[in-house]
Amino acid sequence: ALQLHGTLAAGDNYCAASPPPSCQSHVLAYYHQGVQPLAGGVWPDLSQHGNDGTVSGIVSGAGDHVVFGNGYVAPGLSMSDMIAASGGTGAYTVAAWFQYTGSDTQLYSAIFGGSDGGVKSDWFIGKNAGNTALGVEDGRHSYLRGFVSSPGVFDAAGRGSAHSLIYTRSGRQSDGTYTGKAYIDGVLAATPGSFVGVNGVEQLLIGMETGHHGGLHQFTGSMWQAL
Question: InterPro entries, from UniProt (predicted)?
Fold first, then answer.
């Protein structure tokens, strides 16, 4: 839903950026714990749309970051909303400044994920099961478990600090597929991958995915920003 390049730094405020884009209409939601902290089970949206994130489970503010402890944040947005914001092309970008604190062998840990409502059309961006790769799924049977085989954010060395992740998806191509790219700490980290595209009814979540191989896959760690 936006074009964002370079590194998303923990202390930056994208909505106060000058010159623009700042928070133009195409930014559907932007959460920044250091600017508008989580309170009363709500992570306030800094964009012009008022898509405040609603907490389910255990997610708590800790100074300038949010700690995910068996919980997630729901912005109240669907993939259809993302598609509409792209003018119907299907292009979108999501980004987070985060620190993973789980283990190498933990199962899927979703930085971003979706709730598929039983239609079995999955959306997942996060740690792959059983190793430290970055996995991406955008549509049913469209999971690349080693989208970035060694991202340097989930292993022991990477867990020692925070990192930025920016994931962008192209518009719909002539063959009906989409191309995804991942930037880690400002660097293009993967050969672009091809995806069939998630169903429009998928509800977008921060810190969890439901439906991926029948489970609930929650993020373990902290986030400073998400958009």
Answer: ConA-like_dom_sf
- Per DSSP, helices labelled H in 7-120 are 79-85
Q: What is the dihedral of CA 177, 182, 188, 190, to 10 degrees?
A: -70
Contact 200, 191 (CB under 8 A): no
Nearest to 97 by CA among 84, 83, 112: 112
Contact 85, 92 (CB under 8 A): yes
> What mean pLDDT is predicted for residues 6-18?
52
Q: What is the pTM of this model?
A: 0.90
Cβ burial of 141 (10 Å; 0-12, 13-18, 19+) is: exposed
Q: Which tokens sit at 172?
A: 């719909």
8 A C-beta contact, residue 26 and residue 48: no
Integer-rounded Cα radius of gyration of the chain: 16
Whole-angstrom Cα distance, residue 225 to residue 173? 30
CA dist 54 and 95 (Å) reads 18
The strand pairing partners of 164, in sequence order, are 97
SS3 34: coil
Nearest to 1 by CA among 111, 77, 98, 54: 77
Instruction: List, for residues 153-199, the tens digit of each pLDDT value.
Output: 999 999 999 999 999 999 999 999 999 999 999 899 978 899 999 98
Rounded Cα distance, 98 and 133, in Å? 16
Domains of the chain: 14-226 (2.60.120)
